[in-house]
Amino acid sequence: MTSLLVIIVLVLLAVALWQLTKIFDLTQVGSSTDTSEIATDKDNNVQGYLMFGFLAFLYIFSIYGLLKWGPLVLHTPASEHGGEVDNLMNITWVLIFIVQAITQLLLHYFSFKYKGKEGQKALFFADNNRLEAIWSVIPAVVLAGLILYGLYAWTNIMFVDEDEDTVVIELYAQQFKWTARYAGEDNVLGKANVRLIEGVNTLGVDMSDPYAQDDIVVSELHIPKGKKVHFKMRSQDVLHSAYFPHFRAQMNCVPGMVTEFAFLPVYTTAEYRELPYMIEKVANINALRAKKSAELIAKGGTALDPYAFDYLLLCNKICGASHYNMQMKVIVDTPEDYKKWLSEQALLVQQVKESKAPAAVEGAVQVDSLKGNDTTAVVKMAMK
Ligand SMILES: [Cu+2]
Question: How do the domains of the chain map onto residue ranges?
Answer without folding.
Answer: 43-116+131-158, 167-267+312-342, 346-384
